[in-house]
Amino acid sequence: MHPSLILLFISFSCSIAIRETVTPNNPLPDNETLISSDGSFSLGFFRHSSSSSNLYLGLWYSNITPKTIVWVANRKDPVINSNIAVLSISTNGNLLITNQNSTIIWSSGVTNVTNPVAQLLDTGNLVVRSDDDGQSYAWQGFDHPTDTLIAGMKLGVDFTKGLNKTLTAWTSSTDPSPSQYYAMMDIRGSPELVIGEGSEKMWRSGPWNGEGYSGIPETLTYSGFSFNFINNKQEITYSFTTNQSLISRLTVNASGIVQRWLLVDSSGLWNLMWYAPSDQCDFSPPCGPYATCNPNNSPKCDCIQGFKPKSPDKWVFRDATDGCVRKTPLDCKNGTDGFLTVPNTKLADTWNATVDTSLSLMECKAKCLNTCECNAYAPSDVRNGGSGCIIWTSELTDLRVFVSDSYGQDLYVRMALADLGKVLFVFILFILLLLF
Question: Same structural domain for residues 177 and 56?
Fold first, then answer.
């Protein structure tokens, strides 16, 4: 081969060399890309439109067109009015994005790593570690999600690291800066996922019941997915994994909608599997206290048995925001109260409920019955007949029911004897007469 052709071949080979790491001596300029070892993910600089002057460091699926960005490092701090951007790592492990004037635009804040290297893993996680330790990460992109949750990434609170891993929507389809919409883990009461706008809660998933979130029963029908919920002293987090034939992502968009996407191999297009809020019962809370919401009914709101509209005049005009009140006061003192089973529910909001996972369902019932302030109880885990205990001592709000018997779970609402039904009333009265 002619020497000049050999030199050309070597030059071409170097230009397309695939690498997955950044080291202090080998930074990543804006015309190069990191690619994970299995080729699944790419990381590099991008402009979201040809007219934009902003440069961002982002992560995307390598073989999916159009480019689907799933993570952005400097979404708050783009490289502005510059044709040059560089990702580098300092000798003590700090990831840096600099512009053409070598001005630091963004940094990871890590400064305690010896012999550091930044690596793009096959999972899509950009990590900083010591080159001598491949298992321990001083920093990782998965700890700082943007608007997308991919397989293996966690949403929720890491108490050990002091991190609240939240999805925050892009401001628009061409602007990755954070908007007012977010999806996060509400760890109060029985933890659940919520969508918020500023300080307002727009939607909630219902608590995790051992099989899934009570307000997202569709996940029970998914094939090839594994949904994981961890609730301990170290973390309260949600994540998912899929088998190797599936690629899925969970996003919150610029309109405040959370969406589950699945890649269709045959077409290369993303199929929308699920989204929330999806109906008039999803927006929180639609019906007021002690009212159930059923989107298949008209009107959608209905008082729980034993309750009546608090504002009948408003109810006529289908304004149920004031909710319902009891027809008959409870009688805790004389011990005549019982429980009404409301089946197939997304449990009422648990933000101020108390949870004790050590109790059996029978113990939970007894605890509620012996606590005069208790208005309802439910198992925290529906598997194997139910176990654990959620107790509500305040009003039941944002309660919806599902039509399908395979969706939702049972909620046990405390009732005065007179409101439990004639047959039960007569039976208990008969027992009382026998005793006294």
Answer: yes
